[in-house]
């Protein structure tokens, strides 16, 4: 069930390992994450691959939320300054 090979040509529009690697790099994945994902693909470990990608996505989203808090603090400071 999980050990079915993941065919790159089925990952439209990806048709090559290099294209998948480029997408992972563009998504901010580290070399370790990329290596793990490629290994999972080559070994047909779809569930593990999806788990790793979801972990990375969660980490990115947490960073977004943290930066939103920083923006909120700055917005509040600007608001307070403009009041006086």
**Count of DSSP H/I helices:** 3
List the uncertain runs: none
Proportion in β-strands: under 5%
Along the chain, the helix and strand elements come as HHH
- Report helical residue fraction: over 70%
The overall average pLDDT, rounded, is 89
Oligomer: single chain
**What is the C-alpha radius of gyration, as a whole number of Å?**
19 Å
Instruction: Report the sheet with the most strands, covering strand number, pairing sense and barrel closure.
Output: none
The count of domains is 1
Straight-line distance between termini: 65 Å
Form type: elongated
How many extended strands? Answer: 0
Structural class: mainly alpha
Essential attributes:
84 residues, mainly alpha, 71% helix, 0% strand
Mind explaining what this structure looks like?
The chain is mainly α. The chain has one domain (8-83). 71% of the residues lie in helices and 0% in strands. The chain is built from 3 helices and no strands. The chain has helices at 17-26, 31-42, 46-83. Helix 1 (17-26) runs antiparallel to helix 2. The longest helix has 38 residues, at 46-83. It is elongated. The termini are far apart. The model has no long low-confidence stretch (mean pLDDT 89).
Question: Could you outline the blueprint of secondary structure elements for this entry?
Answer:
Elements: H1 17-26, H2 31-42, H3 46-83
Helix pairs in contact: 1-2, 2-3
């Amino acid at each position: 069930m999980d050990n079915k090979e993941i065919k790159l040509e089925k990952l439209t529009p990806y048709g090559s390992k290099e294209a998948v690697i480029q997408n992972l790099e563009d998504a901010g994945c580290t070399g370790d994450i990329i290596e793990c994902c490629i290994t999972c693909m080559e070994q047909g470990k779809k569930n593990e691959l999806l788990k790793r990608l979801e972990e990375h996505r969660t980490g990115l989203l947490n960073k977004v939320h943290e930066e939103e808090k920083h923006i909120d603090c700055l917005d509040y400071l600007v608001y307070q300054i403009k009041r006086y």
